[in-house]
Amino acid sequence: MLINTVLVYIRELLPVLLLLATLLRLLQCCRRWLLQCAVFTLLMLIFLPPGLGDITQLADGNGLELLFVTAHLTTLAALVLLCAYRQPHNYVAAVAVSAQMLLCGINLLLYGLTNIGAENSTESFWLGAVLGGGIGLSIAVIWYQLLAELQRFSQLVLGLMLALIAARQGIETITLLGQIDWLPSGKAIWDSSMIVSEQTEAGVFFQAWFGYEASPDLIQLGSWLVSLVLILTLWQWRRGKQ
Amino acid sequence: MTLLYRSVLLCCALLSCEVFARQEFVLVLKDHLFSPSHLYVPAGQKIKIRLLNQDATPEEFESFALNREKVVLGQSEAVLYLGPLQAGEYGFFGDFHPDSAKGTLIVLPEQQWIQRQVQHAD
Q1: Which domain holds residue B90?
Q2: B101 touches chain A (CB under 8 A)
Q3: Closest-CA residue in chain A for B56?
Q4: Is A61 in CB contact (< 8 Å) with chain B?
Q5: Which residue would you say has higher pLDDT here, B21 or A207?
Q6: B75 in a domain, yes or no?
Q7: How many distinct structural domains can be found in chain A?
């Protein structure tokens, strides 16, 4: 129970924390947008639980997937705007992080519903949540410092990191649309689960970072590449104009 | 405009035929256990799995091999669309109770699937 809670928290929090750390490196001048994200998260935690049942039943039981698709596309669009603007706007960063917080919040809320109040598991749940959150935060701090070091060599590092995070949004969107049968599921192009399984620590980290998929199909790979190239192109274009 | 309208209608009709043509299977979750724990399905076909969660708490159906992650609330049901799948075994589990909620989707080649259907009909 304890171990499972730690793993769930790390897995759900990592994508948000990695995005947050990367955006904090990008927008060092102002941190007010963090407050906007915190307010959004608080509002979500207040208003979401009563409506969660209704959301899941929307669109023939695919409501949650459609909400997740919207959140991924919102993050992707926000990252595109961040790379396209000459002077990145803070509220765009707030939108990107808030959309990811929505995803993470819903999953953690659902997981919490299964454990809080259950016999003999509440204590383990809270302990696991604290440990998972702590480990996630530690990874984000290391990530932030690593980006700071790598930025000394090249500014492209930050662009590449944003592009990889954007690529994750692309592949996740396609996977979700395939899951609800809005897109066909093709044959896997390769299977790298023997090298890095998605169940291992590295697999979880890669999934949170750049949407690692051990056996992607052609549409998934295509969406990943398009998102990556789009952000990198915009990043280089903006730097060329500066 | 009429042509466009007809094309959209045709696409919708084809899409709905495609969805309804899927063979449906039922997977029940009770006391954090999947039943059946080994679900047999045919290879090379699009299938639909109806997930019935009879527990009071939510569960997340997760399968890395199938690229699927679907939340199903307590006392509720959800639908999973899969395939066409290659013959083989695909593990799945309940993400919120991975120690107990485990199962395997066994995808049988066409011949074996027909044989199995005949055996069960007898």
Answers
A1: 23-121
A2: no
A3: A114
A4: yes
A5: A207
A6: yes
A7: 1
Q: Does residue B14 lie in a domain region?
A: no
Nearest to A114 among B58, B80, B86 (CB): B58
Q: How near does any CA of chain A get to the CA of B117, in Å?
A: 26
Is A174 at the interface with chain B, CB within 8 A? no
Shortest alpha-carbon distance between residue B122 and chain A (Å): 34
Count CB neighbours of A205 within 10 A: 17
A180 interaction partners in chain B (CB closer than 8 Å): 81
Question: Is ipTM strictly over 0.90?
Answer: no
CATH code, domain with B98 = 2.60.40.420
Question: A74 touching B, CB under 8 A?
Answer: no
Number of A:B CB contacts under 8 A? 67
> How confident is the model at residue B121, as a pLDDT?
76
The residues of chain A scoring below 50 in pLDDT are: none
* Partners of A15 in the β-ladder: none
Q: What is the pTM of this model?
A: 0.88
Q: How many domains, in total, are found in chain B? A: 1
| Domain-located, residue B6 | no
pLDDT over threshold 60, residue B31: yes
Tell me the DSSP string of B16-52. Answer: HHHHHTSEEEEEEEETTEEESSEEEEETTS-EEEEEE
Classify residue B9: in a domain, yes or no: no
B10 at interface of A, judged by CB pairs closer than 8 A: no
DSSP state of B68: E
Q: Which residues of A167-191 are buried (b: 16+ CB within 10 A; e: fewer)?
A: bbbbbbbbbbbbbbbbbebeebeee
B79 pLDDT exceeds 60? Answer: yes
DSSP B122: -
pLDDT exceeds 80 at position B16:
no
